[in-house]
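Support request from a user on the community tier.

User writes: "When I paste my structure tokens into the form, the page sometimes reloads and wipes my input. The last time it worked, I copied everything first. Here is what I submitted, just in case something in the input itself triggers the reload:"
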């Protein structure tokens, strides 16, 4: 009998079938708060204290005892000195800094031509000069060389208004 009812519902009305499915899904659903309370676990606490070992004391840079020379950009070395590698300004066997790729000749150069203070001063001088020149041009720019032309009664007649002379239809042009 149950299969017969289901079959008749599916043939009769699709809306009734959707209502039946919705009521089943609502009764099967559990509240979210109940689910959160049951799945909550205590968080582990990580309390690990790291102690220094003898290896850390013997090698504080942790680089295997490599002699790390002071940080110096190759840009600031004397370009006319007698270097083994003249392009990189480096001697043969000279220890490299661990950040050699950042401090080498092919890294971006440090801009030392102007200090920021002098740069802002020069920028301000440029802006003041341009604005001053605009002010001088505004004061001394000449007026129009002529006086505006005036028309009696406006431009109605000249532009084909109500008082304008009409052109006849039998007008023949000299070139046509």
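"...and here is what came back when it finally went through:"
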């Amino acid at each position: 009998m149950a299969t017969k009812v289901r079959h008749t519902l599916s043939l009769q009305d699709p809306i009734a079938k959707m209502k039946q499915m919705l009521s089943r899904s609502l009764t099967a659903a559990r509240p979210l708060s109940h689910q959160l309370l049951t799945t909550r676990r205590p968080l582990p606490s990580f309390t690990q204290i790291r102690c220094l070992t003898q290896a850390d004391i013997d090698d504080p840079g942790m680089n295997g005892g490599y002699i790390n020379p002071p940080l110096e950009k190759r840009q600031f070395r004397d370009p006319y000195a007698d270097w083994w590698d003249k392009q990189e300004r480096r001697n043969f066997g000279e220890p490299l800094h661990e950040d050699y790729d950042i401090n080498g000749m092919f890294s971006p150069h440090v801009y030392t031509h102007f200090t920021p203070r002098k740069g802002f001063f020069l920028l301000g001088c440029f802006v003041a000069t341009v604005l001053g020149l605009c002010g001088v041009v505004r004061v001394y720019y000449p007026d129009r060389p002529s006086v505006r032309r005036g028309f009696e009664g406006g431009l109605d007649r000249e532009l084909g208004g109500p008082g304008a002379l009409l052109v006849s239809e039998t007008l023949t042009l000299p070139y046509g």
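Agent notes: The reload is a front-end session timeout and is unrelated to the input. The longest helix spans residues 116-140. The radius of gyration is 46 Å. Escalated to web team.
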